[in-house]
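Contributing new complexes? Match this layout with erythose-4-phosphate.
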Amino acid sequence: MKLFLDTANFDEIREVASWGVLDGVTTNPSLCSKETVSFEDNIRRICALTPGPVSAECVSLKADEIVPEARALAGLAPNVAVKIPVGLEGLKATKTLAGEGVAVNMTLVFSAGQALLAAKAGARFVSPFIGRLDDISEDGMALVEEIVEIFGNYRIETEVIVASVRHPRHVIEAARLGADIATVPFAVMGKLVRHPLTDIGIERFLADWRKVKT
Ligand code: E4P
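Output block (do not edit by hand):
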């Protein structure tokens, strides 16, 4: 499974890239609003650092406005994937953009029907938001299971990005279900590597080793 970082913060991306585990990045308007550098410059420098796709989101709502906005975003770097919220206007825009070879990440997906239509319109990625479903007492991971099953049934090539990840178990469950990608906040990425027994184990080994040396 590929791991994307869900952030627009350059320092976080540089740090995770240095761990050798970064496959891509997703941003959204809320994440970008926290950064001081201009949106376009930030996307360009994130793309230069990131080996895989970097999602940059369109804010237009009508297909005839989404399409030129998406083309401009795609022109920022070869590895930009344009994020478009799912909906009728988004589907129309995705159809046009996919025909031009633009990678579309259809976002704010909360049902399998939305994911299926996004794939049929030509989206390269779909992003079910599991944490936000869990937040309202629905089962986000059940949605991932449905989408993975449907895409598997028909060998649909659209990749499933498990988004709105809140904790390491979300990442593990996504991997068990065969999702293509999890996009993970920086704090959760750090939690994936830590385990108290690892820390205790290192302390004990070092304490024993000090005895050998004296
Ligand atoms: C995904 O691409 C989104 O940027 C993100 O996962 C949204 O997560 P949130 O629900 O924590 O805002």
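Reviewers usually confirm one structural detail per submission. For this one: The CA atoms of residues 75 and 115 lie 26 Å apart.
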